[in-house]
Amino acid sequence: MSRTRFSLALLALLALAAAGCGSSDDSTSDTSGALSASDCTPAKLQTQSAGQLTVATDEPAFPPYFIDNDPTNGKGFESAVAYAIAGQLGYKKPDVKWVVEPFNSSYAPGPKDFDFDVNQISITPPREKQVDFSSPYYTANQGVVALKGSDASKATSLAELKSAKLGVQIGTTSLDAVNEKIQPDSEPQVYNSSSDVVTALKNHQIDATVVDVPTALYLTAVQVPEATVVGQFSAPGGDQWGALLAKGSPLTACVSKAVDDLRASGELGKLNQRWMSQAAGAPPLD
After folding, report:
1. pTM for the complete prediction?
2. How confident is the model at residue 23 (pLDDT cuts 50, 70, 90)?
3. Which residues pair with 246 in a beta bridge?
4. Would strands 166-169 and 189-191 be described as parallel, antiparallel, or unpaired?
5. Measured between alpha carbons, how far is 153 from 147 in angstroms, rounded to an integer?
6. Domains of the chain: residue spans and CATH
7. 33 confidence band (pLDDT: 50, 70, 90)
8. CA–CA distance from 37 to each of 27, 44, 95, 254 (Å)?
9. Which end of the chain, N or C, is less packed with Cβ atoms under 10 Å?
10. How far, in Å, CA of 46 to CA of 251, rounded?
């Protein structure tokens, strides 16, 4: 999860393709039951503040998920998705309030001071024991980023990465993917934040890192231009992202319905194409 200022022009330079690492069009079961649109309106929804939808994400907020570190501008994939969900629920843009929630604390058990959180949070069984998730709005592959000229940068398979010194952010599905799919010869270095991972890569303290593919493309384009995207591979069991809500939230079914309706209407596909489809350019690693 990368976070710093990023221009729309740079995103436009990244290769666009519809196939590849993930798609917000991925089919999923309808978790919204028999809800109707009239069940999911600001007048009926039990939000943090009456008539207002409180949405959380981390700080800083990185492209291509958020642009200019400003979730309120509606630019970037997750900012646009959040406002699209809000619109489906009947909230106008001024009715949406953004708050900061660190990634690692978002899925901790207990009450929340937000209605839902969008922060590339993968839906996993352990997390589902502590929080609710909406229907998935995106499915991501994992990308390997290595310093140019290193042995890791020349890898064409996961087996060729086993001897590399890898660094990954703690608490992420990328760390699980490293351990389960790459199974490196030495324990991966674990860092508290994505910024720490970037620093370690820049300082040659690690040979490579694993992040979701859109982030991998951003890292190599902006934060670590001396690195390259080696390739991509699927996370164990897939890596679906959902809007995160407090466990047992009365909003979960309505947020899921909003996501399902956005998928059915093609709106999620349009947002994915605009902000995320450049991720298809990374070669597969078997």
Report:
1. 0.75
2. very low
3. 131
4. parallel
5. 6
6. 8-27+34-140+239-280 (3.40.190.10), 142-233 (3.40.190.10)
7. low
8. 21, 11, 18, 9
9. C
10. 7
